[in-house]
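Reminder: ligand-aware prediction takes two inputs, not one.
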Amino acid sequence: MFITLHAPLDMHLHLRDEAMLETVAPLSAETFAGGLIMPNLVPPIETREALLAYKERILKASNEQNFTPYMTLFFKPTYTKEFLESIKDELTAIKLYPAGITTNSEGGLSGFDVEELRPTLTAMSELNIPLCIHGETNGFVMDREAEFASVYAMLATNFPKLKIIMEHITTQESVALLDKFDNLYATITLHHLLITLDDVAGGMLQPHLFCKPIAKRPEDREALLKVALGGHPKVMFGSDSAPHPQHAKEACGCAAGVFTAPIALQVLSELFMKHSTMQKLQAFVSDNAQKIYSNIKISPKLVTLEEKEFIVPHHYGEVIPMYAGEKLQYSIIDIK
Ligand code: DOR
Ligand code: ZN
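Here is what comes back for the chain with zinc ion:
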């Protein structure tokens, strides 16, 4: 059984910088045609110069593997229309983090005052720049995303022409929002389709599965599976592959993030095959994103997988991937 994917896209990807970038960028660049690159570096990507320089470093680290980094800026309510106009052609989206909600987000937003946000969000709607959001409050960890639903609703209503992408959704409530507001879309990760909180903390604590938002209940995972496997047109794949060195994961104070980039297409193939929904995988890993992000250019790439055992490496440099050392059912056998 062969599966051929056309231009697979990872619409939520952390590539980091320096040595980590050198380790992880070639892995995504090999199997994906493009990825939406998160701006939460230290310091975050907030200027044209920083964005262009980071894009160059990514292209260099990707070893010219026909991979397009779709760049993002770290949202600031101080961005003016003139600034956004000047940078519009260099970026694909702007990523908003609530302050302190996850890795390197200290400079994020500390409140959602619609009037404070209005000038920047109005300019983004007029310039057709999508807004990607890490949607969590600082409430109880299992409720953070559900509590954020009112913020999504407020933004979607006040800025009806703004494309808002709910990043890495993990709950039934977020899935329900997709059909309530025309301008809300979502990414879903690989790990949130596979695990629940039980896999993270139900037995011995699994640091390599610890991430933000934390994995939720079985019924939440079911809701995510339903829209991903069903090829819901407002949902796209975004791995949120977030590498941290082994010492930062296996530590007192474990960094949040699951590293899935090198196993994503193999595991997605297995998952969609298991549910007999293989005909929807192309929509989930590429076609939906191409329609939602109407501003992206697609690098041609054909990735073929076969039902053939693949043993996940124990590590990639300093990073431990999800399913390290385990056997997967699908392997990538050709990339053109
Ligand atoms: O688990 C996560 N890791 N969630 C995020 O939102 C950020 C990411 C990271 O950058 O490490
Ligand atoms: Zn992320």
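The chain has one domain: 2-335. The chain is about 35% helix and 15% strand. We will return to this case in the review session.
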